[in-house]
Amino acid sequence: MSFLSHDHAGVVYHTSSVLEEQGIIHGFSTRLGGVSEGHFASLNLRGGGPHPDDRELVRENYRRFCAALGADPAGLVLSRQVHEDTVRHVTAADAGKGFSAPVDYTADALITNEPGLNLMVFSADCIILLLHDPVTGCAGAVHAGWRGTALDLPAKTVGEMGRVFGARPENIRVAIGAGIGPCCFETHDDVPDALRAAFGPGVEPYIAPKGEKWTVDLKEINAWRLRESGVQGDCIDTCSLCTSCRTDLYWSHRRTGDRRGVQGALIALRRETP
User: Fold this and answer.
1) Which of 48, 86, 190, 197 is most deeply buried (CB count within 10 A of its CB)?
2) How many Å apart are CA 55 and CA 58, to the nearest integer?
3) Alpha-carbon distance 198 to 201, whole Å?
4) pLDDT at position 18
């Protein structure tokens, strides 16, 4: 398994071989190939925040990213992330929310079984994951920072795909995108304490002392929890890139604070052609 890099008219993005095998529309954006300027340069997908980018530039960035993936912007459904564990079942009634219509919900994970809906989550260090079950034909997108990880949100999303659509964990494929790595995620006691309270001693291999602080491997914690939920290890593909190390490709909150853009991940079920 591996992540593959693509360049479509200057839009640089990544796909996962574990999802490529299923022919699913998906991609993880970078900061390259858009029209935003300054600290938003250039493929910024964040329209709000305390220092907002120009809305029309952001909309053009979405159009460019969708064009690169072969997705219709009219089908965009964006998360409204609050670092909690809500999983929203997305339907055709949600099409356009966050792009051409207001978002009237909060959710850090989205799931659907309807073709043509482009589920999107966002990151500037947090872990973003895309999920697909080729058997029942459902998909999901998850944003999990350390709080979402401690809430076991990716594994909970697997459970919701089973409850709502009948997906079995052993059939689900998962791509874990670029996010902050243990090389850069140094934290005080609050993060390890929350993870230990949630998961017990099983989480210890992914936490290491560093002076008076700790390093935490969020990607590997989520991969472990997905395996514990029944997802097969060879169906999980993890991008090795660290967003804090690779600010040439990604925005990193740890590096630049809130004066930044965000990258995103998109997944969509293909419409059947007549």
Assistant:
1) 86
2) 5
3) 10
4) 97
Chain centre distance of CA 115:
19
Q: DSSP state, 233?
A: G
Instruction: Report residue 161: phi and psi, to 5°.
Output: -65, -30
Q: Locate 232 and state its tokens.
A: 């097969």
Q: What is the mean pLDDT of residues 235-240?
A: 98
Q: Note the pLDDT of residue 272.
A: 72
Task: Give the side-chain half-sphere CA count within 13 A for 207.
Answer: 20
Q: For the whole prediction, is pTM greater than 0.90? A: yes
Sign of the CA dihedral running 140, 113, 77, 32: positive
The token pair that represents 1 in the structure block: 């398994």
Span 14-30, pLDDT tens digits? 999 999 988 899 999 99
CATH number belonging to the domain at 3-268, selected among 3.40.50.970, 3.40.190.10, 3.40.50.720, 3.60.140.10: 3.60.140.10
* CA torsion angle 236 220 270 70 (round to 10): -120
